[in-house]
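In the current project phase, we have settled on a layout for protein records. A sample record is reproduced below.
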Amino acid sequence: MSGQSPRGGELVPSGIVVLLGTRGPTSRTAIARSLDLSPATVTQVTKDLIARGIVEELESVPSNGGRPRRLLGLAGRAGVALGAKVTADHVAVVTVELDGTVRSSRSHDYDPAATDALDRLGRILTSEVAGLDDELLGVGVGVPGSVDSQASGIVDAPTLGWRAAQVGPILRQAVGTPVLVDNDVNTLAAAERLYGIGREHSSYLVVTIGRGIGCGIVVDGAIYRGANGGAGEIGHIPVWADADQPVCTCGSTGCLEAYIGADGLARTARDRGVIGPRGTLAGLLRAATTGDGTARAVYAEAGELLGRALAGVIHTVDPEVVVLLGEGVDGWEFWQSGFEPSFRRSLLPARKNVQVLVEPWTEDQWARGAASLVLASPFDAAGNGGEQSRLVRARLGAS
């Protein structure tokens, strides 16, 4: 987690606990390097954690010429986080260990348009936390929309029909634990901080392709959320000026998402006769896989549009690396033929070699990302989680 120092006295102990949980046994020297702390600070803090029975000394390992280094590890199980991803028809819930292992995974039918939708969500989460007792550090919730802050959790999510929805306050009252809420793509960016590229890079983008096109922006180790929590909505970059174009879910025309989101791809495939009037993306992917040239052209054109739009984002944010995720990556081999030349051609010379990583996708990753909001609380130097992050750190026994 180079470049992601848990600045501030109360962040350091819990940052060390989570680092040991996510990486396993680690030397004091490696802890200092990873968290950008002085060796003296690490020695002092770990001494206290050992005395409190949270951390223990393990075996020694050889060092380069000096005396053997002692590794530190967690003395016991440091807790779990619950993650919930809210969609238009279900809620996916996972219980996640500190090292990112998914202990359990379930799905609940859900109607966000129901008059008691938030109360129903509270009941779902209450049933899920039952039995976790003192293990539970907190609950993270990912939603497909804008969230004013992780700490308050007020949500605007047009695809769910939510306007200024009091998600955070209602869920905290229902569940009785710390609850952090954020945009679902931001939750994936939080997961990358703990378990992925965020270990080696402090500035990166997480771009998702699927029903929509989203982007989580991490700058200097912190998720950039913007003035109102809506940063990263690259699916609504205008890519076409003609008003006689498909209407996006946001109500505008010409948005990137309207063309290359799931609905846009399926519409194009139907218009070109690749799939029938009720055809789906699964049918488009099958056609492309079996060599249908028109199907492959649909994907290639989508990749070209994505490449040009993403190049603009690269010029604006200047990340070290980009990660592509989401349900749409199962067809990436067909996107790529249009994406790669368009993307590279659109970049300034100094940016042409920026790395783009495509990671395998599973449905659990959305909810696991939501749980990462809780597990990343020790690195919340920007204070996005406010009191909720502080309560998580207290449950870690380190604040």
Notes: The chain has three domains: 11-74, 80-191+364-395, 202-319+327-358.
